[in-house]
Amino acid sequence: MSKLRKAAQGRECMVRIPDICNRDPATTVLAHYRLAGCNGMGLKPDDALGAWCCSSCHDAVDGRTNLDGTHTRDHLRLFHAEGVMRTFDALRREGLL
């Protein structure tokens, strides 16, 4: 497990999708942001393109949750991208990046 994936354990969710986020640090993992040119079939993006994400938000951004139209795919991508930026900022302040 990489140091960035390990650093996600026990952290607050940085994706924070309204009405979805469970706010449980015990479920937080590093959720990789999919971006054209940075990943491919069977290839995850670099860990630096990840957000600390609770299990509920992770299920939503990965499409494993039926949201019944409460959030569009574009909204979920925006929440995830903002989570990546928040995570990057926290890691930078802690000297991990």
Describe it:
The protein is mostly helical. It has three helices and two strands; from the N terminus they run αββαα. The chain has helices spanning 3-7, 55-61, 73-93, and strands spanning 29-32, 50-53. The protein has a two-stranded antiparallel ribbon with strand order 1-2.
Structural class: mainly alpha
* Topology order in helix (H) and strand (E) letters: HEEHH
Strand order of the largest sheet: 1-2
Roughly what is the average pLDDT, rounded to an integer? 89
By DSSP (H or I, 4+ residues per run), the number of helices equals 3
**Principal-axes shape call:** globular
Described by strand count, sense and barrel closure, the largest sheet is: 2 strands, antiparallel
Distance between the termini: 16 Å
| Strand portion | 5-15%
Find the count of extended strands (DSSP E, 2+ residues).
2
The helical percent reads 25-40%
Rg, Cα atoms, Å: 13 Å
| Uncertain stretches | none
List the keywords:
two-stranded antiparallel sheet, mainly alpha, 3 helices, 97 residues
SSE layout and pairing:
Blueprint: H1 3-7, E1 29-32, E2 50-53, H2 55-61, H3 73-93
Antiparallel strand pairs: 1-2
Q: What can be said about this structure in brief?
A:
With 97 residues, this protein is mainly α.
